[in-house]
C-alpha cells in the first residue's frame, strides 16, 4: 500500500471514529463542559470588561436588555441597574451603560469616540450626515447644511414657518370650532406631526406637504414605511432581496424617494427660470450647492438621502416634544397659568404675531417649561451608542477598554441626582435665571459636542 493510500485509510478511520463519538451524549456533555470552563476562565481572568460591575448574565449576552427595549421597560430597568451598580454598568459582553452627565459629555465632545457600528446601516443606501461614522464626511455635511440652521438662515424662512406652522394650525382649529358650533375634537399628536412635517417639507423639500389640511396625510405613512422597511432590512437582510416580502412598505419607500427626487428637480427648474428667491437660505438650497469630499458635486442619491433624513430626524422628535409639553401644561395647570400670564404681559396685543427672537428674549418662563419637558421626556430616549475607540476611555472610576460599545443613557443623565434636585418632579423654575442657564448645559436631549443635533435651533 502506498503511503498516500495509508494516509487516506487513517483519515477515514479518524473521521468514522469521530462520527461515532459524536453520536454519544457523553461527547456532547464533555464538549459543553469544556466550552463552559473556557468561558468561565476567560470571563474571570481575561475578559477586558471583567472589572465593570453588572449582573452576571451581562458577561455572556445582551439579550435581557434587548427584551426590555422591545417591551418598553428598558428605562426603569437600566435606572435600577445604575442604582445598584453605580454610574457605569456592564450590560452586555462588549457594552456598558453610562449615566453621568460629565461622562456622557466627555464621550460626545470629540470625534475620537465615533458613533457605534449600529449606525452604519443608513436609512437609504447613500451615506448621510446622521448615520455616517466618518469624521471628515460628517464635518463636511455639517458645514454645508449649517447656514440653513444659522440665525440668518432661520430668519430668512421665519415667515414661511409661521405660515405653514402656527397660522395654518390656528386656522384649522378656528374652522373646526366654527363648523362644530363651538365644539371641536382634535388629536394633538397627529396634528403636531403634520405641522412639523409641513414645515420640514418647506425647508428641505421646497414645499409644504399640506399634511395639516389632510385627514390622513400620506407623507406620514411614507415616512413611517421608510423607517420600518429600513429597520427590517437591517434586522433580516434577506427581506431586501425577496420582492414580495413587505411589498407595501417597499413601494412606499420607493414613492418617498421618487417624490423627493421630483422636489429636487422642481427647485432646480425654479432656479434655472429665475423664479427662486435667492434670499431664502433653506436646507434644500444648501445641499444643492454641496459637493463631496473629492470635490465632485453631491449625487442625486446622496441628495435624496440627506433630505429624507431631515424629515425623519425632525418630524417625530419635534411633535413628540410638543405633545409632551401640552401634556405637562394639562397636568400642571398652575404652570400653564404662569406661561399664559407671561405671554400676556410681554405681548399684550393678541393679534400681533410673536417672532422667534422676541419670544427668546421675553419669555424665559415659557422656555424653562420647554427645557423641563425635554429633561423629563427626551424625544430621543434610551441610548446613544458610541465606540470607546482604540485607546479606551476613563469614565468615572472605571477605565473602559478599546472597542467597547458605550451606551450613553439619556434618561439616566436627566435624572442624575448629583445634578438635578428632585429629578422626578416637573419644576420649570430650576431653569430660571443665571443658575438655570448653567443647569441647562447638563441637558443632553440634543446629544452634545461634535455630533449634537443639527436641527436643535
Ligand atoms: C425636539 C426636537 C429634536 C430632538 C430632541 C433631537 C434630538 C437629536 C439627537 C439626540 C441627536 C443625536 C442622535 C445620535 O447621536 O444618535 C440628533 C441628531 C440630529 N438631528 Fe435632531 N432632534 C430634534 C429635532 C431635529 C430637527 C428639527 C432636525 C432637522 C430638521 C434634526 C436633525 C438632526 C440631524 C441632521 C442630526 C445628525 C447630526 C450629526 O450626526 O452630525 N433634529 N437629534
Q: Major sheet: size, sense and barrel closure?
A: 4 strands, mixed
Give the rounded overall mean pLDDT. 92
Oligomer: single chain
**What's the alpha carbon Rg, rounded to whole Å?**
27 Å
Helix content: 55-70%
Unreliable runs: none
Strands of the widest sheet, in order across it, are 1-2-6-3
Query: Based on DSSP secondary structure assignment, what is the total number of beta strands?
Result: 6
Categorize the overall geometry. Answer: globular
Series of secondary-structure elements, N-terminal to C-terminal: HHHHEEHHHHHHHHHHHEEEEHH
Termini gap: 84 Å
Strand content: 5-15%
- Which kinds of small molecule does this entry bind, naming each only once? protoporphyrin IX containing FE
What class do helices, strands and sheet pairing give? mainly alpha
By DSSP (H or I, 4+ residues per run), the number of helices equals 17
Task: Outline the structure in words.
With 457 residues, the chain is mainly alpha-helical. It has a domain at 1-46. It is 57% helix and 5% strand. It has 17 helices and six strands. The protein has helices spanning 3-22, 25-46, 63-71, 74-85, 101-108, 135-149, 151-179, 188-205, 218-235, 247-272, 283-288, 300-331, 333-346, 356-362, 364-376, 410-414, 433-440, and strands at residues 88-92, 95-98, 383-387, 393-395, 398-400, 405-409. It has a four-stranded mixed β-sheet with strand order 1-2-6-3, sandwiched between helices. Strands 4-5 form a two-stranded antiparallel ribbon. Strand 4 (393-395) and strand 5 (398-400) form a beta hairpin. The longest helix is centred in the C-terminal third of the chain and has 32 residues, at 300-331. The chain is globular. It starts with a helix and ends in a 17-residue tail after the last helix. The model has no long low-confidence stretch (mean pLDDT 92). Protoporphyrin IX containing FE binds at residues 129-130, 138, 142, 200, 310, 313-314, 317-318, 321, 379-380, 384, 445-447, 451, 453-455.
